[in-house]
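URGENT: need a sanity check before tomorrow's submission.

F., can you look over the Mannose-1-phosphate guanylyltransferase record below? I want to be sure the sequence and structure line up before it goes out.
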Amino acid sequence: PDAPVVFVPSDHYVRDEERFLDSLRVAGMLVEETGKLLDIAVPAAFPSTILGYTRVGEMERRIDDVEVYHFAGHTEKPDYETAKRYLEDDSYLWHASYYTWTPRAFLAAFERYAPATGAALREVKEALRGGDREAAARAFGETEPTSFDYAVTEKMDPADVLIIKGDFGWSDIGGWDTLYARLSEDREVENIVPDTAIVVDARGNLVRTSSKKLVALVGVENIVVIDTDDALLVTTHAQAQRVKEVLAQIRQTGHDEFL
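Structure tokens as predicted:
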């Protein structure tokens, strides 16, 4: 329960794997040394409303070219105007969700900042110790469906957290806006469109289609068009994160065949 563990999301792109691993090594080392929660945050590339933002204070130390900062606060998924303001302030970084701590400390944090969830997790722990998986599943079902970011991080005392500034070419490719940002940077183009597309005075667009139809873009900016065999999505980069609202309406109207 006192060995460092790290959360590693599955939908991230990391260009420089060695620098990424160096950051994780430093995080684990500092957890053992300080007992604090370690997290990794990366420089923001554009205003995002699907990512959390970590604010850092003064640099605490540098270890083998890895910069470690004091924690100054966390804002989960701000609105677009707030995200634009954050982009202009170097102290705001994208929260990359590489939490590193010990199991004992994670559980204690839930018990302090989200007591109901903490109590349920302790029941899970005791049930698993007794070999009762059904009881563990029931207890886990009683936890509030929220993220660690909302339940704990936003409430934590900054003195209990250190932030590593990640510099390893990071992207969260779980959203259309972030996918466009990564693809356009890699290909050094303004539009991500089919090879046969015709583009007239258009920029910042992402078009993906499963059909052989000719795609033409004329005088449009920052739109996302996703065309599949049974569905068509048209949105903008700024609103792309609201696709989850579409999914909710599909479920509410009983059209599960489109999911």
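My own read: The helical segments are 17-34, 80-87, 103-113, 115-129, 133-141, 148-151, 176-187, 243-252. The CA atoms of residues 100 and 247 lie 32 Å apart. If you see anything odd, call me.
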